[in-house]
Design goal:
Length: about 700
């Protein structure tokens, strides 16, 4: 029997290391294992990674040569910062005159607090002339004498003139210390923020380098020839070499892995992803098929690290119920795990005999209002999972499923104390549990202006069923639990695409400069192993900040999914009609390619212009894009330049706010090229031409335009 090629995703958590094997062709889950994270082994977490890989290969019957893709996510960088377990940084400031005044102020980074009572270990030295090798070496000697084990060079305006920082690194190289220049971490202006980001990156550099070397050597020794990739905090993966340069990109990558799994496996186009564990729920957004990212706050200050916008609420499947004055007063933040108690719904009926309700203080300093059940089998915690099972909200086969009758028996003593029936008591518990989650979800839907007609709530994590189904019912939204929700994070690691983001501040950026940033991002992902023909690049030009941003993504190999379960024309039409909130008879096919179909309808409101809402549906029947009012036109690659020039010209708005080109998307082959981030018509058309340049002249092109007000 032929074994399949597999994609392996490994998620290194604080307690356990989870690994999954996914069929590289069908993306079907083939195997999953869990091993303790090996923090205290001489090889560190690398030992647990290799142990998980060995067990996974044994379980699936695959050989190391069958591994087509291998990636891991790690909390190591995050934990290092939270625990203050970092290297002493030697910062070399460069400059004379006013520049020297600016760089000398960077010594204040030594006041940054990593953990309570523990500050960032930083020593500062100044060099007036970066070409003065003797002065640089004297500075390095000074910093080493003060305990520095890693170096950072920083100079004002190094984004435009990096020669000074590079000269300092060249002169310091004989000392053999890990080094980085501020301009290598980010190309955005802002000396203080750029250097702070570089300093935090350097603080975790030695530890991450050691781990990277051990993991790389262990994987190679195991016989895996696929390049090792590492999860980024923005939902993509990067090559190991890139991680060695910018380990800071792995900070906050844990939540990013989960939403990457929802995006790739669940094919979410618009919605909120809730990853619920035993103690907390991480909430993030997918908007128009992309994860929402922003500059992360690290050590209490904003940075230039682009990370998943994730907001955490202290409510999970194990959160304990709080009561007082005959009512449910809250749920959490303490969990059964922290209290050292088993969930009542997982007890046997015999263990729950003679149950009475009591209240406890889980930790010193906590209020004495957390409900527990004292019964024949001992003391048990009443949790959110107990309530969800009592109401039948946990589906068959779910990680958190218990016998419904046992869950109802677990809630019954508490219901008696509350003076109500079991179903009402369970509903009140869930209402209290999701209250904080609902507030955050409402805020994120508003912040990102999600389309409420198409937005869905997707639950991941072992505790997904305790939060997502009840929240969806309360909000009147579509909600579902992700397949294999308990291992959604390693699945996300296994399915993630290579990603790179390039940002430049370019006042009055020309077409050539915008295209150059785009090309740089594309080259970066190809250099990390992405197949060139499958790379997609999204470009955004922000006229307020003069920032040109290009985000490139691509797979390390072109994946062809199993087509045996593709949606037919009727299923796709129904999906579009459901999203459009109208009858299928009122929906029409407007255009299409082999991979996507554009459906549309018309809406007429009194005294307002007719609108033409559209939905783009892929071959799986998933809505990939939606617009409240759009124009759709089909052409060919050969005719596209002229057609697009006309369409963009007709749809461009002019006003006090300046020129605003339409939001343009092109359907090409299997892709949707998103050019909506560019507001100026000429650069927009130049980017469109760059998307067309390698295509056959007679290939169809579908243009979807949305006029901006």
């Amino acid at each position: 029997m032929n074994t399949p090629r597999i994609r392996v995703g490994i998620d290194v958590g604080g307690t356990f290391t989870d690994a999954v094997a996914v069929d590289a062709t069908t993306l079907e889950l083939l195997g999953q294992v869990k091993v303790p994270t090996s923090h205290h082994h001489e090889d560190g977490v690398a030992h647990g990674i290799v142990e998980a890989l060995d067990r996974l290969l044994e379980q699936t019957g695959c050989a190391p040569a069958d591994v087509a893709f291998l990636a891991h996510g790690t909390t190591q960088a995050t934990n290092a910062l939270l625990e203050g377990d970092v290297a002493a940084v030697g910062l070399i400031g460069i400059g004379t005159g006013p520049s020297a005044m600016l760089t000398r102020r960077l010594a204040s980074f030594g006041k940054l607090e990593l953990a309570p009572g523990k500050r960032l270990p930083l020593a500062y030295a100044h060099v007036a002339d970066p070409q003065d090798t003797s002065a640089v070496r004297h500075a390095v000697e000074q910093l080493k004498g003060e305990g520095a084990s890693v170096l950072v060079a920083s100079q004002p305006f190094s984004v435009d003139r990096p020669d000074g920082e590079q000269a300092v690194l060249d002169a310091a190289r004989p000392y053999g210390l890990p080094m980085t220049a501020a301009h290598e971490i980010t190309s955005l202006y802002g000396l203080h923020k750029r250097t702070r980001t570089a300093v935090v990156n350097a603080a975790i550099l030695p530890r991450m380098l050691a781990t990277a070397d051990l993991v790389d050597a262990s994987i190679t020794k195991a016989g895996v020839t696929a390049p090792l990739m590492v999860m980024r905090c923005d939902g993509g993966v990067m090559a190991l070499g890139e991680m060695r340069r910018r380990p800071l990109l792995t900070v906050l990558s844990g939540p990013a892995a989960g939403v990457a799994g929802a995006l790739m496996q669940e094919r979410v186009s618009e919605g909120v992803f809730l990853e619920t564990g035993g103690t907390s729920t991480d909430i993030s957004v997918v908007r128009r098929g992309k994860v929402a990212v922003r500059h992360a706050t690290i050590l209490g200050r904003t940075s230039y690290l682009n990370a998943l916008d994730v907001r955490t609420v202290g409510v999970g499947g194990g959160s304990m119920v709080r009561i007082g004055e005959g009512r449910v007063t809250g749920v959490g933040p303490r969990s059964a795990h922290i209290a050292g108690l088993p969930y009542a719904c997982f007890a046997s009926p015999d263990q729950l005999r003679d149950a009475t309700v009591d209240t406890v203080r889980p930790m010193d300093g906590d209020p004495v209002d957390y409900a527990v059940i004292d019964a024949a089998g001992g003391r048990f915690a009443v949790t959110l999972t107990c309530a969800a099972n009592a109401l039948g909200r946990v589906p068959e086969g779910d990680f958190a499923r218990s016998a419904p009758e046992t869950a109802r028996a677990a809630i019954a003593p508490l219901a008696a104390v509350l003076g109500t029936d079991v179903a009402t008591a369970a509903a009140r518990i869930l209402d209290a549990g999701i209250a904080q989650v609902k507030t955050v979800v409402d805020t994120m839907i508003r912040d990102y202006r999600l389309d409420k007609d198409t937005a869905v709530l997707v639950g991941g994590g072992g505790g997904a069923a305790s939060v997502t189904p009840h929240l969806a019912r309360t909000k009147g939204m579509e909600g579902r639990i992700a397949r294999h929700n308990e291992v959604i994070s390693p699945i996300g690691v296994a399915l993630a695409l290579v990603r790179e983001q390039v940002e430049r501040i370019v006042p009055g950026a020309t077409q050539e400069q915008i295209l150059a940033v785009r090309a740089e991002a594309e080259r970066a992902v190809v250099a990390q192993g992405a197949a060139a023909e499958g790379v997609e690049v999204e470009v955004t030009v922000d006229p307020q900040t003069n920032t040109v941003r290009a985000v490139a993504t691509g797979a390390t190999e072109l994946r062809t999914q199993d087509r045996s379960h593709r949606a037919d024309d009727t299923e796709r039409l129904r999906a579009a009609a459901a999203s459009l909130k109208t009858d299928p008879a009122a929906v029409h096919v407007l255009a299409g390619t082999a991979a996507h179909t554009v459906y549309g309808t018309r809406t007429q409101r009194p005294l307002r212009p007719t609108r033409h809402p559209i939905r783009i549906v892929d071959v799986d029947g998933v809505v990939r894009h939606h617009a409240a009012d759009a124009r759709v036109e089909t052409t060919t690659v050969a005719a596209a330049p002229e057609v697009l020039a006309r369409l963009v010209g007709e749809a461009t708005s002019y006003g006090d706010g300046g020129v605003r080109a339409p939001a343009l998307r092109l359907l090409l082959g299997t892709r949707i090229a998103d050019l909506s981030g560019v507001l100026d018509p000429q650069p927009l058309l130049a980017l469109a031409h760059s998307e067309l340049r390698t295509r056959a002249a007679d290939e169809p092109v579908v243009a979807v335009l949305e006029v901006r007000s």
